């Protein structure tokens, strides 16, 4: 998870574009010929896309972009610490 990447995705893509990309990456990970490194890279991209989708959701509910990004970062860090 990289907050600067999530910010870029949030600022430059619509939720519909992110969801379409997410579907493609998930399908890619299911191919038999995909190696572990490729799955790891796709997984990192999936995490960032999901983060951008969550930030879009929080902003649509009235949160400021900065607050939404920080809240997502804290949520992820909190789940890692458990």
Descriptive notes:
It is a single chain. This protein is mainly alpha-helical and 82 residues long. Helices cover 82% and strands 0% of the residues. The chain is built from four helices and no strands. The protein has helices at 3-12, 15-29, 36-60, 65-81. The protein is globular. The protein starts with a helix and ends with a helix. 13% of the residues are buried. The model has no long low-confidence stretch (mean pLDDT 92).
The helix/strand series, from N terminus to C terminus, equals HHHH
Poorly predicted ranges: none
- How far apart, in Å, are the first and last alpha carbons? 17 Å
- Characterize the main sheet: none
List keywords for this structure.
single chain, 82 residues, mainly alpha, 82% helix, globular
In short:
With 82 residues, the chain is mostly helical.
Which helices and strands appear, and what pairs or packs with what?
Layout: H1 3-12, H2 15-29, H3 36-60, H4 65-81
Helix pairs in contact: 1-3, 2-3, 3-4
